[in-house]
Amino acid sequence: MHGLNLANVADWLVANIGDVEAPFTAELIAGGRSNLTFLLTDANGRRLVLRRPPLGHVLATAHDMAREYRIIAAVGQTAVPVPMALGVCTDLAVNDAPFYVMGHVDGVVLDSAERASALPRERRVAASEHLIDVLADLHAVDIDGVGLGDLARREGYIERQVKRWSTQWENSKTRNLPAVDEVARRLSERIPAQQSVSIAHGDYRFGNCMVDVSCGRIAAVLDWELCTLGDPLADVGYIGVYWSDGDDGAALRANDPTPAGGFLRYSALLERYAQRTGRDLSGIGYYVAFSCWRLAVISEGVYARYLHGAMGDQGLDLAPMKAGAEGLAERALEAVRSLP
Fold it and tell me: Is this model's pTM higher than 0.85 or not?
């Protein structure tokens, strides 16, 4: 299996993870388009999840497995639900790349309107509320208290992000998209004052959570590779990229479950978050525009990795992925042009 030396990993697991027994079976968990994620099952049926970087060349600042492991281990001390951090391996002799292992969490990833059918309609308001409540809890975590005070710089988050993703665009783009450059310029010209500092997940949405559909609650928050310290409103704006109000079936993103109906409106999420945190959300439109633009850059990087074979051969049609980056860039441009 590309990206997984199962024999070596099995030996490492037995030596480093308690209560596991060889042999192991493995399967690639589909859906993730950045790091490779594998489901491992031991001889007794215990399930573990292993994450490692993509195959081949990746950007130098991305895919730090030890850093991601450190984050989930720290957040695991709090009320924010995350998988249990079990171990990290930086010895390249084991699997040719660093990896970490976490516990498996049962639940459903609501990454499309179709997948939302697993969540009964009468529980969708509760799931919406818990999604924003968990985010508020994350943003309330004592950064120093959980040992993440030195994870990143605390101030100037948006300014740093605009610079970072502008650089990533130059390093990973497969074609010119003038909208990306125009949005970067417009964002740079009107960077908002940062109200506070928190753990910023960077990719927070239903599609990166396991949902317990029996009660409409978040069972675990996943995919922490973009996490840093910074402006919490960036996470709130990012949810808006994946949230379609109403039941008209018009998804803003293919992996947006909300067109299935029954979920709160985005404005209600904002109101609940503001009540929970006391933060001023009057300028959230900027953060939605910024999030669309950043996601366009990320999407181009993912498309480039698949195009060049860094994610292995998963038999995917890359045309929608390519078009997705273009659509996000245009949506970001429309959003930033409409700011007051």
Answer: yes
